[in-house]
Amino acid sequence: MKTIQVKIHTEFIKLEALLKFEGLVETGGEAKERIQAGEVGVNGETCTMRGKKLRPGDVITLDDLRVEVV
Hints:
alpha+beta; 2 helices
């Protein structure tokens, strides 16, 4: 599983925005579909909330990718 780190300069970033920002999905619509389909994990648990606030220390998984928020 490949790991990448995403540095944020704000208190949090929403899950949907992170997926788009990092290019893990093509569009916001695709992000919404993949999140609602249960394909995205946050801190080891399936997350279906597009607006989930991610903060430094959170880990997102999608396909064979692990994304650490720093």
